[in-house]
Amino acid sequence: MNPQAPVRAADDAWLTAVYYRFHAWSGGRPFWAGLFTLIGGIPIAYFPYADLRLGNVTIAMATTAGAGSLIIGVLLITLGLALWFQQGIRVFAGVASILLALVSLPVSNLGGFFLGFLFALVGGALALSWAPGKANGAQGDAAADKAEAYGGGPLGVPGPRDTETDTAYATETTAHADGGRNSAG
Where does the signal sequence lie (predicted)? Predict the structure, then answer.
């Protein structure tokens, strides 16, 4: 191998590209809220149907509310996925996952032995507290930046004029917003 040949890091290039794509994808959505909500639904749906075998002895946690546990778990998993792909429903999904976590306490073996309950509760709280951030240079942001610089209102209607700084047409008798008069004529 030639020592003057350029170093090619093709082995790690795909991993770096995947990392940056995932980081860009998860940065614009309530990723952790969806993950906690999704993880919270798994033990709530699993424990009522699980059985533990110790030799010839089978220990089953089956309850009469197995169908309710399955419904709550599947709904929490669905809400977790919806938080990833539909950010607009984050308030609804947050409130719904908190309510489902609370309902899972009496219905589903103490909310999946408090494990699913805590994960769903934290996921719902994260969904309610998440707010979309400002995009930084992605495609389509040119129009948003142009609209922000314009300062117009909705549907292209111009916004209110700042009379403090817009004194180009003020005369000596023009009153300003603060009640004073323009002394520069």
Answer: none
- Same structural domain for residues 125 and 34? yes
**Span 48-58, pLDDT tens digits:** 777 777 788 87
How many helices (H) and strands (E) the chain has is answered by 7, 2
Q: Which two tokens stand for residue 184?
A: 């520069």
Domain interval for residue 174: 140-185
Q: Is residue 4 part of a domain?
A: no
CA distance 170 to 185: 8
Q: What is the largest CA-CA distance in the chain?
A: 100
Can you tell me which residue has the tokens 């180009």?
Answer: 168
Q: pLDDT, tens digit, for every residue of 12-63?
A: 677 888 888 888 888 888 999 999 999 999 998 887 777 777 788 876 666 6
In a shared domain, residues 107 and 154: no
pTM: predicted TM-score of the whole model, two decimal places: 0.62
Q: Are residues 160 and 111 in the same domain?
A: no
